[in-house]
Amino acid sequence: MSSKLRIDLIASLILKKAIAQREHVSACAEFCVALNLKTKVSAGVSDNFQEFRRILLNKCQNEFNSLIKTRKHQEAMERESDEDEQKPLGEHKKANKKRTLGLVRFIGEIYLKKLLVFRVIKYCIARLSQSIDQHPIKSDFIEPLCELLKTIGNTIEKKENEGGYVDSLFERLEDLSNELAENETLECRHGSIIIRDVIALRQSGWEESNNEDNDHR
Fold first, then answer.
1. Is the pLDDT confidence value at 79 over 50?
2. Where do the H-state alpha helices sit in the chain?
3. 111, 108, 110: which is closest to 149 by C-alpha?
């Protein structure tokens, strides 16, 4: 097996582990850092440092886009399904949500480890926000967005708020929370509470966020 194929396989296994078991996301991110360093200093494979990062980034982006596309497809099926079909669709929805939460947490963690640039984070935030800001509001994407913000909020607040990017993002979240709170469905009200939680976390100075030893996010 070539060096590139080995790196591709390792990146796939790490991503699979992180998505499936969120409690191991921080460890997976740390392993990526260690692998980067080892690959960078290995004799004769200096280019593989950048290669690993590129492969990992591509896999994260492909998985992210796939999960969003899958959820939108599920929504279309739910609208057209009868009562007997709702249960299996609900199980698929639950599994997709779990994978999405694991993925965004991993993306946030490897960003904190400086393996991803902020441009990638902005892309993920934009895709999730665009998916939410439809009529009716798509509340399924609220929890992944808030999970990502809980993971990286303190860092982007300090480093990436030039031009008021973070301020504008949270102004929209405030408006969105108010809109959802007025909706009668339990799902929308739950979405409002999730947003309120991340807003409160920001107001508290991100005390529980971006602590690399804290796995309770």
1. yes
2. 3-20, 25-41, 48-80, 83-112, 118-132, 142-159, 165-181, 186-203
3. 108
SS3 labels along 89-137 = HHHHHHHHHHHHHHHHHHHHHHHHCCCCCHHHHHHHHHHHHHHHCCCCC
What's the pLDDT at 40?
61
Instruction: Note if the bond before 144 is cis, omega within 30 degrees.
Output: no
Closest CA to 78 of 89, 64, 67: 89
* Dihedral over alpha carbons 118, 212, 10, 42 (to 10 degrees): 90
**pLDDT confidence tier of residue 211, bands split at 50, 70 and 90:** very low
Q: Are 71 and 96 in contact (CB under 8 A)?
A: yes
DSSP-derived 3-state class of residue 210: coil
**Residue 9 binned pLDDT confidence (cut-offs 50, 70, 90):** very high
Q: Is pLDDT at 102 greater than 50 in this prediction?
A: yes
Two structure tokens written together for 61:
């982006």
- Which pLDDT belongs to residue 41? 52
